[in-house]
TrEMBL record:
Pfam families: RraB. InterPro entries: RraB-like_sf, RraB_dom. This is Ribonuclease E inhibitor RraB. It comes from the Bacteria. Residues 30-125 form the Regulator of ribonuclease activity B domain.
């Protein structure tokens, strides 16, 4: 399944992926609710800043390229705190701030990250875009 990553130790197990998916899907509605408090309606389109982590540059590069192919800005590099951890970050194209749309996008990011042996670590945004 992860043939191109055979030479590197797995970063995220299937169980960690499932646990993270559950966690991210529980957090996204809370974040959307906080945005509502700042006047962001479900009709508003916002770019989301996203974060992933992994343990190898080849995995970070592969995910970053796929995110770019979706029309997102994307970059990767070493973690400020750990040279063995790679960080992938960037901004999406504008996304509807409906809870349903954000939940669907969050699920997609978790699965996309896992397919590249990266862990989706969540998202943020600026309601003043």
């Amino acid at each position: 399944m992860f043939g191109i990553f055979k030479s590197k130790k797995r970063f995220i197990s299937e169980q960690q992926h499932k646990d993270n998916l559950d966690y991210q899907l529980s957090m996204s509605p809370q974040t959307v609710a906080q945005l509502r408090e700042h006047g962001v309606t479900e009709n508003k389109l916002l770019k989301l800043e996203y974060f992933f982590y992994t343990n190898a540059s080849v995995k970070a590069k592969s995910l970053s390229e796929e995110l770019s192919s979706l029309g997102y800005s994307s970059e990767f590099g070493e973690s400020a705190n750990d040279d063995n951890i790679k960080v992938i970050t960037g901004w999406t194209s504008p996304i509807s701030m409906s809870t349903e749309a954000v939940m669907k996008w969050t699920s997609k990011m978790c699965h996309l990250g896992y397919s590249h042996d990266c862990e989706f670590d969540g998202w943020g945004t600026n309601p003043e875009q």
